[in-house]
Amino acid sequence: MTFSLLGGSFYQNVRRLLNKCLRKGRQVSVPDDVVRFESVLTLDAPEREVESVTVDEPTAGETTYCMAVNHFGLLGTHGALPLRYTEWLIDRRYRYGDDSAKAFLDVFNHRLLSLRFQAWQKYLLYVNTELNPKRQLPAVIAAVTGLSAEQMACLPAADMSGLLSTSVRSLVNLERLLQREFQLAVKIQPFYGRWRKVASEYQAILGGCRLGEAPVIGQYFWDIQSHFLIQFTCSKPQQWEKFLSNSDVYSQLNQRVVLFTGNILSFSLELLVAFKGTGITLDGQFNLGKHGYLGNQARSAATRLYITPIN
Length: 311
Known about the structure:
InterPro entries: T6SS_TssG-like (IPR010732). The chain has 311 residues and is α/β, with parallel strands linked by helices. It contains nine helices and nine strands.
């Protein structure tokens, strides 16, 4: 497994290397699991932070890397130790072929660079989430906001929070949010008409009306502006039964919609279900519309099951 440098940034190259190993299925928690850092014996002014990346000999069937780093270490022109140490190590290498002293200092150099990368990773939340399989950010958010685990479960998934950050919220994003939450095919039909009750102050009273006031005759009106239809396609009985009888799942759906649209819009729920069998027996154990339908012929088209809205 080869690795090519992307520019000369130390942090980004280590990050790419760890990501590559994670995609291969390796268990990686710190850079020590994948890469070994070493210093570069040179008195030149380096142009980049990382000089090279080479492949070490495989251990236990897994590939490890060796990354030569110019910056943030102990040796070289940018190192913490005086240049006299670098000059002495260069002399030992080219005159006697001895790298034992450099290998000893690289033990501390590796530890220094590994801790430096972990400190950088800790305070960049997107990098920490990317490289850490055990996500700690939700627990931190819950601790800061004072929410319990049960209250956090009532909120949308963390990877869908970006859909709530936009100033203009579309029904397409609401479809994505509901599909992610309930793992069902979702289709939303806007401007779906619904009968709504007229408030008493807006109802006309014959014989006592004024121009411009109480313009409605009757108790109900057909509203298509503030109502839409949510349609779920359910292939299994367990998928649509959980939306019935004011269950917790329906309350969760209502909470998600109110969180996304506010209290201005209302919705109706329609379930596309496919009943198995040719009918049901009226023996008190079955309900029409819930367990099946009447008749002896099987229906090829999906049955539309409407749920009365609670808002």
